[in-house]
Design goal:
Layout (H helix, E strand, L loop, with lengths): L10 E5 L6 E5 L6 E3 L6 E3 L13 E8 L9 E5 L3 E6 L5 E5 H15 L14 E6 L2 E6 L6 E8 L1
Parallel strand pairs: 5-11
Antiparallel strand pairs: 1-2, 3-4, 5-8, 6-7, 6-9, 9-10
């Protein structure tokens, strides 16, 4: 019996250059005219329209125990496609992580890695910022384009 192959098109998330709406398109549509379903703007799809996500200017992290008390000097990891920052909370169980700190961690990762001298070719990999404490991991969806984010992580 012959093997039957099913073609599944690769979908890419794009952003309308006029209204910034996000939507999925087939990867094979590059170079073709696209019309936004939100604002009806038409343009030729190129790599500039692939959705890119912005890091927040400041992420405030609160780490608490099950009783709601903040945990001082608690180590955590920030991941943006790769682990980029290892830090700990202050004496009040709080930490501030800035966009500059994340970008610095990214450049350190790239220079340490050597052979993989890129962050990621797939921009959807950069959609989430992950904060890990012990085995607990919280994720922030960066598609909302927020300047400041607060995250509370409860460690049990």
């Amino acid at each position: 019996m012959p093997v039957k192959f099913v073609f599944i098109p690769i979908m890419i998330q794009c952003r309308c250059p006029k209204c910034s709406a996000l939507f999925q398109i087939k990867a094979g549509q590059f170079g073709q005219a696209i019309t936004c379903n939100t604002c009806s703007h038409s343009w030729v799809l190129d790599t500039d329209c692939i959705a890119r996500y912005s890091l927040p200017k400041v992420v405030t992290i609160y780490i608490e125990d099950a009783g709601g008390s903040r945990i001082p000097n608690k180590p955590f990891c920030v991941e943006y496609n790769h682990p980029v920052l290892f830090a700990e909370t202050d004496q009040h169980g709080t930490a501030l992580v800035t966009e500059e700190m994340i970008r610095c961690g990214l450049s350190d990762f790239i220079s340490r890695d050597g052979i993989m001298d890129h962050i990621c070719d797939d921009p959807s990999c950069q959609r989430y910022l992950h904060i890990s404490v012990d085995s607990k991991r919280e994720s922030v969806d960066l598609s909302d384009q927020r300047e400041e984010i607060e995250i509370k992580i409860v460690v049990t």
